[in-house]
Prior knowledge:
The structure holds 2 protein chains of 2 kinds. Helix content of chain A is about 20%, strand content about 30%.
Amino acid sequence: MPVNEELRVLKTLSYDATHYSLFVQAGSIGALTRPGHFAMLQAGDGLRPYLRRAFSIADVTTVAGVPALEFVVKVVGVGTAALAHFAEGTPLPVLGPLGVPFPIDDLGRDDRVALVAGGIGLAPLVLLSRVLAARGVTAELFYGGRNEKDVLKRADFERFLGAHRCAYATDDGSLGRKGLVTELLQRELSAGKTYKRLYACGPVPLFRALARIADEADLETSFALESEMACGFGVCLGCVVPARDGRFATVCKEGPCLPHTAIDWSRV
Amino acid sequence: MSVDLAVRLGPLALRNPIATASGTFGYGLEFEGYVDLGGLGAISVKGLSRRPCHGNPPPRICEVDAGMLNAIGLQNIGIDTFLGERLPLLHAKGATVIANIWGDTEDEYVEVLERIGDDARVAAIELNVSCPNVVKGGMVFGNDPVALAALVKRCRVATKLPLVVKLSPNSGDIVAAARAAVDSGADILSLINTLVGLAIDLERREPKIGFTTGGLSGPAIRPIALRMVWEVRRALPNVPLFGMGGIETVENVLEFLVAGATAVQVGTANFRDPFVSGRLVKELAAWCDRHGVDRVADLVGTLKTRPRPEHTFAKA
């Protein structure tokens, strides 16, 4: 059962003009959070922004010894802009953890998995990396962005997974390979490497490409989908994606983590 | 002092005037843990059709200043699943359930009513004749008093349960629609449904909503909703009304009561704050206590208006 709490802002860490990490007290949400969960944050009690915003819980960590939730945010509108400007100590209403997390319970020390992030899609993969590392699961990260500034929290990924298991791709070649992140994954698959599961988060074109790759390579997947949500708990039905069975599936309740086979990509 | 919160809307008695609006409260059970479902005046469930409905392709919603647009397209689990799986659980929680129903044709409305029959676990029927987000049905009935009258007449015959008709604010003349519904057998009216709006993604020069237009809800529409409640109350003072549109606070609830609604439905606010409806019940009692109001029903329709003066001109 998700919890609604007023959690105080502990720190806002700005990466550049459009990316930041927001750290709030973990409250009782921290202990309930699994990789892939999300939370609904309310940026003040004004009418603009009016609705809460959905964010992946990027990490359950500490700030100066205080248990904290981390959200990695890209400024795309009034809500994400407003959340950047709350002073330390400001209480924010947070509802979470919400949704279906990544399936990881079946993974053990002998397993290898792939993590693919595109741009701000890194968010749910941070805590996933932390948890998989703690369990001794081998996880390889493939992370792409337009340029070096788009590729965030590299130090954390490399600390959890090992730098040799983190590969990057950028459109302009400013970091890692110049090209698409899917090419990094393709190269490994072509070399005969196998993965027990592919975890991914990013924009729709990335998901679409990964779905194709997964079909060809017969790879099991879990995609953390993103969608605008009004409620976050299955009521407004605003966040849906076309499902393969002809329905529309709620990203907030049936997801956000869904296998690519659940989604009808021809209707996305 | 204990405040009497009970209200009566014709044949429908409610323990208090705080209900939740269809489409914003799921089938009620989604709010377990946030709200005491049995403590609310009533729960109007997501609009039910004779078969499960998939709704519209996304994008379905977008935020606007002080509210949101939606074009969900009446996605729902269908009347049979509701009656078989959800209603028993809602009833066990002590909830007062309003079954909001819709169809593409008169026959489809009647078919849903026949499935419900005289199920005593349903406190009232609410006819959705005002959904702006479907091509067929919905607002087609709500915007034409003649079509509305014919539909309500057939539904009146098809059910003995208290009959609520939910009116569209998009029809041009809401009083005409109100009269048509009441003359055809509606016991209660609820108003307003969402106002048709448009939001634009400027970079793409596309509507933000896949359906092109969407229904505007939230605090942005409250003054319009209040005005319409007041107009209908003035025209039909003996018809009980559910008022709704942008209710967030206990003051907003009271504004609707004073304007002439006997009870209210809380809508979009449930998305932003899932606890709000339960909290409003407590806050309403506290407000009445503070203001020396023994019976909340005494506040209904107490708006004092002055005659509107004619304009005057300066002397030449």
